[in-house]
Amino acid sequence: CLAVEFSEELFEKLYSTLGVDPLAKGCFLESLPQHILDGRLSRLGPQLAKEFVQQLASKHQFEMLEACLVRLDIACLDIHQVMTLCWTHCLYDAIIYVYNRGMNDYTTPIKELMAVLREALKHGKQLTDNQMMLGNKLLVYVSCCLAGRGYPHGDIDPSRVASVKAEVFQCITALHGAGADDDSIFPYLKALLHFSTREFLNVLALAFEEEEFTTESGLAQKQRVVDILLQIMVQSEGFSPTEVGALFTFLARQLARPDNTLIVNRLLFEQVLEYLTNPDDETRMEERQQALLELLQAGGFVGIEDNRLLQLSEKAKFYRVCEYLYEKRRQYDKIFLCYLEDPSRKPRTFYYAMQVFESHNISEQEKTSLENQLIESIEELLDIDNTATSQLMLQYLAHRVDDVMRKLEGRPEVLYQFLQGVWNSRELQSSSAAQSIVPGAKDSRGLAAEVQEKYIDLMCQFEPGAVHQFISSFDGYRLEETLEICRRHKVFDATAYLLERAGDIQGAFSILLEVLREKLNKYAELKRDASHKFEMDEVFNAIDAQLCTVVQLCQRSSSKMDTAEREALWFPLLEVVMAPQRELRTLLGPEQLGDFQALTHHLLGSMMGFVALPHILHKLMQDPVYSSGKFGEVRDFIMKMLDTHNYEKALLNTTNRLLNCDLHLHLHRLKLAANRGYASHTASCCACNKSFATGELDDVVMFRCCHCYHRTCLEASRSAYVDAGGQVQWYCFRCFRVGKKPPAGFSKRVADTPRTLGSSSEKPQELRLNREPRTEGPMPLLNACQLSAIDYLRNCQRTKPNTLFTSTLQGSPSTHVLRKSSLLSRDDLKLHLSPARITASVFDV
């Protein structure tokens, strides 16, 4: 029917035909909403429309019903049926649509729906979803009417636009309502203002943009509305500070327009300011602050001085308003205080300070002012978040840590927490793999030594057990001053560590030994009183840990001492460990005695690497604990010591054998290198190209790259240098640039061979060739000899072939002479392949 544009009569006949079958009728009715919502079907027959409405209502599809009703022609609908359903099920859009299109009435919907909204607002309770929907629909409907647009869609008849605007505006600004018993003034304005002041004022602001309000009568109407609003909201009660602030924000924006003609008494703004900033009123502070801030941003206090606004805002504790005023003055230190004093924004204080320090639009003087304020407020910041404060100081104010220390001098616990946070943050930054440089950040690594020493001093007071770990993990403190601090607070482990660093091994040993002796004495006292078994276990564990500390000190220091000094270090420790066993031998049970013997065995095993075994056995057998009794009591000690001795002896022998094998292999390779011979590729000098057939061999110099020269040619080319031993060394200038000393190891394959071989006046260099064994892998690089051979081959290829062939056919004497007088065929140049004498020069490259 839609495709062929059937008329209404044919559509009715089709429906009547399908209506015989209930199933077909239901399917037909269910298919209609899709076409209606798409806009392809806007008119139905009266009977069909009635059945369609009844079908959707029976299935409780009221939202779809309302959407379809506002898209159908009003003439095809049963008004009584539709209005009954709409009022029953709160279909407000359909009600407005029926009144507008069916009755051409635009004010009655406002009056009837406004009565429902006023009834809901009168109880002062939270509005339901349907009531909120009603209020929102009313605001949108009024806005559409005042703008000349239809609701919920479409347009108003152009001939009715002006009259509709006037009627609706007159309706909402009416002095009294439609009810006969309604005595309130401006009921519709009050209802809309109570429902949503801000949104209704936005509706009015949009309406004031229409051209009807630019005429003389329109301007009068605008002034009348403003006077009514002031009368309702300012001169009467019942509106919250937020709603009053929204009104004056609306007025401030209207007064700031260039074409403004409104007249508003400025004293009203003064009254609103006094009302919003009343310090005695602690109710709705956030609402009043937000209203004042919006009014201030809208320019409502143009004639009021900022100092007065700031004073009133500070008294009212409106910190966000103060922030707005301070920002205009670029007083960032004051804004920092606003964040710090505002309970709801204290945690954001650190983020604001970081933003200021990183900003490029803020001068250094302004940043310095913020730094000073931050130092003054350091205690409050530490109370908020110690970690965040330390990170902020380390990242941006590391150069002001001394000032913080002076500020917190009277609160040592707070100062210790601050410095602890600084060092923790510093450690996290230094351990970060990729630390980005923050713009505006200061260097956090250059903390003064006095700061570290102060931190160590406080740590000795509040956490002495962590001092040793700290001083062994960080540097930068002064040794003598830190040692004096640790001595003053009697932190023995840290004192011993510092003495060891200072080189006073005996002093460090004495301190640790005294601590061990005190723990052993405490254990002896507890042993005499058998009621402290649990505490005895703790003390024995402390003895074991302290003994390990002393043993580690002795092991680190023994390598720097002679035999007498080592014995003076180890034997007193052994005496201290064995003394309680003599005193408590009768009190110690088998288990406790075994524990002490385990300590002794651990100590003896640690001593054996530094003290001779006979001395240890002699000292052990002199002790009454082990000298008396049966051999079985000391057998375990002696056997374990002997096992350790045998193990170390076998280890030493194995190490020596490996070293000897390595030395032999190295010397064997040197011998092979020394016995290797080199052959020249040519019988002529590479510099002057003259043959060596004539002349003395003493004038010939041959290099390991197989290039040969006259000595005079090398001297002329300055191919010589003096080595570290003061001897003159030659080098091939064909392989290296003239005047430049060849680098050591220039060719890895011949790096261990000498650079010269010849019969010069100096002693010939000994050959040393350390051939590396072939390994599977990539092809090795060409050495100097191979490169020289390639150059020789290229030179031969550049020779004219005709000349070489002709000389061969003619039996050129030069060729015969070359073969006959070859350099290698001379008796005085034959290589004698005997092992060369290995001298110090073998190791010269």
TrEMBL record:
InterPro entries: TPR_VPS8_2, Vps41/Vps8, Vps8_central_dom, Znf_FYVE_PHD, Znf_RING_Vps8. Residues 612-670 form the VPS8-like TPR-like repeats domain. Residues 747-777 are annotated as: Disordered. Residues 763-775 have a biased composition (Basic and acidic residues). Residues 685-735 form the Vps8 RING finger domain. Residues 28-208 form the Vacuolar protein sorting-associated protein 8 central domain. GO terms for biological process: endosomal vesicle fusion; protein targeting to vacuole. GO terms for cellular component: HOPS complex; late endosome. This is Putative vacuolar protein sorting 8 log strongylocentrotus purpuratus.
